[in-house]
Design goal:
alpha/beta; Rossmann fold; Isoleucyl-tRNA Synthetase, Domain 1; 3 domains; 15 strands; globular; binds zinc ion
Length: 489
């Protein structure tokens, strides 16, 4: 028998046996993206980390309601209470409606997530679609005396809260430290203390997205949306709340405070945080100018990339590290991941051809237990992958006649392999053709020459037919000044 699932709880700072509040139902909330730019590797990690959690919980027969939000209003530039709204700023620069920015980047985010084979969440609420819920949440905090109104904005009273609860229990930060760390920013004079955080912000004349409220025409602050939407869809207590470690403070710390202030108890049983991706040891981020978007990875179109990396290579690369470890990006690491993944996925064909014997010389049950133990140990995907490589060695041995499996054990191995590789780790065969395959390149050149000849002869029907047939194979052809370019979608 394999062990029970254990999850490292950031709040208790230890691994705990997973016991959902209302089994077999599980509520999971993960902070989603603020949609004002293309998704990068730093977005892929939480998406894939919690995709594994979602997939595995369903695999072991829980009914999971997975909520991942879209932040489309209220996330200010400096992640605190000052600066311009990230989406409003993008809209101003691009002369678009904020909701055009939101739609554009939400669509692109979804496309990237599909490419990475990340399952869709059960509910994907937006902050702007839940203004009423957020206003109600603020009202309850005000009624309980843990917030105050100041010049049309509402702030959370961290000092007052600290008399009854512990602000800092998740991140381990103390309010004295916060005081030192808080820079003097404009608008701070509206607050009793610089570490108080906004619940509602009165909009200034420049702000384009605002709604009426009892306090002012304004907009809800970022931390609040997750409290309001999490409570609406998953109830007052959520089983699992996840996100990147960069959200631990102030975002998640403030979510805990908001729920205690509104409901009188903690909002979450298990807090889970994935670690960051680094590039040459430095945190990846726009400010460091070292971030690479997912599209750039998939096309190889970035100066730091030696080649294009398929979505599955990115996924496998991320899963090769435990989600609580940092993961350092390099071309070598990605190329190693690509090779490893191809090897692992290549075994699927061998399994299909295995010939049964009268007896089994392999400990099939042992593999089964080792694989489940790895995932049950706080989703240890690198260990599970190591066991899968061992399993593929055995499969090759059976294929070479150096080990034996009975018919029923072949079936067990097949099921184990497909459960872990496809269902739990969420890997799949990328498009069978690849842009760096030289045969494909040569064939494409021939096909495009034929198309050019057709066009030169004004045979538009043939030229279009070639383009349309290629499109069916997910190959898009773009006409250029000197001929045509092609790419695999
Ligand atoms: Zn959040």
């Amino acid at each position: 028998m394999s062990r029970a699932l254990q999850i490292y709880n950031t709040l208790s700072r230890k691994k705990e046996i997973f016991e959902p509040l209302k089994a077999p139902n599980v509520g999971m909330y993960v902070c989603g993206p603020t949609v004002y730019g293309d998704a990068h590797l730093g977005h892929a990690r939480p998406a894939i980390t919690f995709d594994i959690v979602f997939r595995y919980l369903m695999h072991i027969d829980y009914k999971v309601r997975y909520v991942r939000n879209i932040t489309d209003v209220g996330h200010l530039e400096n992640d605190a209470d000052e600066g311009e709204d990230k989406i409003a700023k993008k809209a101003r620069l691009e002369q678009l409606e904020p909701m055009e920015v939101v739609k554009f980047y939400t669509d692109r985010y979804h496309q990237n997530m599909d490419q990475l084979n990340v399952l869709h969440p059960s509910i994907e609420p937006t902050a702007s679609g839940h203004i009423i819920e957020q206003i109600e949440f603020i009202k309850s905090i005000l009624e309980n005396g843990y917030a105050y109104e100041s010049q049309g904005s509402v702030y959370f009273d961290v000092d007052k809260y600290g008399l009854d609860y512990n602000y800092g229990k998740l991140s381990g930060r103390k309010t004295e430290d916060l005081l030192e760390n808080t820079r003097k920013l404009s608008g701070q004079d509206q607050k009793k203390n610089s570490f108080d955080f906004a619940l509602w912000k009165k909009s200034d004349s420049k702000h384009i997205m605002h709604w009426p409220s009892p306090w002012s025409k304004g907009y809800p602050a970022w931390h609040l949306e997750c409290s309001a939407m999490g409570t609406k869809y998953l109830g007052d207590k959520i089983d699992i709340h996840g996100g990147g470690m960069d959200l631990l403070f102030p975002h998640h710390e403030s979510e805990i405070a908001q729920s205690n202030a509104s409901r009188g108890h903690d909002p979450v049983k298990y807090w889970m945080h994935n670690n960051m991706i680094t590039i040459d040891g430095q945190k990846m981020g726009k400010s460091l100018n070292n971030f690479i978007t997912l599209d750039e990875f998939f096309t190889g179109n970035h100066e730091s990339l030696e080649k294009a990396y398929s979505p599955m290579t990115i996924r496998f690369f991320i899963l090769q590290a435990h989600y609580r470890s940092t993961l350092d990006f390099s071309n070598e690491a990605l190329q190693a991941a690509e090779k490893g993944m191809k090897k692992l996925l290549g075994v699927a064909e061998i399994i299909e051809k295995l010939q049964p014997s009268k007896s089994t010389s392999i400990n099939v049950e042992g593999f089964h237990n080792k694989l489940y133990d790895a995932i049950n140990d706080d989703f240890n995907t690198p260990i599970a992958i190591a066991h899968l490589f061992d399993l593929s060695k055995i499969i090759n041995q059976v294929n070479d006649g150096k080990a034996t499996l009975t018919k029923s054990d072949i079936e067990k191995i097949k099921k184990l392999y497909s459960s872990f590789v496809y269902d739990i780790l969420g890997l799949k065969n990328d498009s069978s053709v690849s842009t760096d395959d030289s045969l494909v390149s040569d064939l494409m050149e021939t096909i495009l020459t034929l198309r050019k000849n057709a066009k030169d002869n004004k045979d538009w029907a043939t030229a279009d037919k070639i383009r349309d047939e290629l499109a069916k194979l997910n190959i898009s052809v773009k006409d250029t000044k000197d001929g045509a370019d092609w790419s695999i979608d």
